[in-house]
Amino acid sequence: MIRHHPDSNVLMEYAAGTLPWAMSLAVGAHLQLCPRCREGRHQLDCVGGGLLRHTEPQAVHSDSLARVLQRIDQDENNPSQSDLIGPEVNTAHSAAVDSGNRDRPLDQLPRLVDKLVRDNQPLHWRRMSSSLQMARLASGQNQCEVALQRIRQGGKVVEHDHRGREITLVLYGSFSDADGVYAPGDFLVREPGEVHRPMATQDQECLCLSVAEAAVSVTGILGWLVNPLLRFRPA
Ligand SMILES: [Zn+2]
Question: 70, 104, 126, 229: which one has the fewest Cβ atoms less than 10 Å from its Cβ?
Fold first, then answer.
């Protein structure tokens, strides 16, 4: 059962199309798993449609329609907003996440995440610590770093704070920190300055999608050693 959802501000930014694309990806993937937020987004769309109906018509350039159609053609490689709707998950490609690894494959991936993983084959997993591996995913924009993060069964990630907003979507397994327990589909936003120490539950590894505006910063004396090595690479 999903317990952690995007708040109304994030959903509103998503519905209005003002979220950075990579963050929209995480929200859209959550929507594919969460009927409650799909309904919330639908209601926001209705409000937006109602506002548009009461807006005075504005003149547009004569070639506007042609430009919109051209833009739709160009966006074939980047999923449009319409691709972000719907409950679909893809079960056919789950093994790709685990290529080269020994853990059991995912049962399901949200379709958006599955497409991103597919586009980033082969995944290059980097060992960040004894408990954490990370595979960066090119998303075609340079504001945010998108990555898969896997915490080994029972593994603890070092305590860190956030220099920018970070969204985490749990895809498989679960982890906890001082604020709660997060299971598949749960959506978590960390704001700059928030400190936490995630720990995977003991029964299985945890796989998450993360979208970050900046690199994390390891706290304490270990940070002296580790932080200069942490690279932020939006792609
Ligand atoms: Zn939700």
Answer: 229
Distance 113 CA to ligand 1 centre (A): 16
SS3 156: strand
- Strand stretches in the chain, DSSP E: 89-90, 109-110, 126-127, 132-137, 145-151, 160-162, 166-172, 175-177, 180-182, 187-190, 195-196, 199-200, 206-212, 216-218
Tell me, what's the pLDDT at 20?
86
Ligand 1: centre distance to CA 32 (Å)? 9
Q: How far is the CA of 78 from the centre of ligand 1 (A)?
A: 23
Task: Indicate if 150 and 212 belong to the same structural domain.
Answer: yes
In the chain, the amino acid numbered 12 is M
CA of 209 to the centre of ligand 1 (A): 15
> Domain residues for 46?
8-84
- Does residue 152 sit in the same domain as residue 117? yes
Q: Rounded to the nearest whole angstrom, what is the distance from the C-alpha of residue 147 to the centroid of ligand 1? A: 21
> What is the 193 CA–ligand 1 centroid distance (Å)?
25
Q: Are residues 133 and 208 in the same domain?
A: yes
Is residue 181 in a domain? Answer: yes
pLDDT tens string 37-91: 999 888 888 877 777 777 777 787 888 888 888 877 776 555 544 444 444 444 4
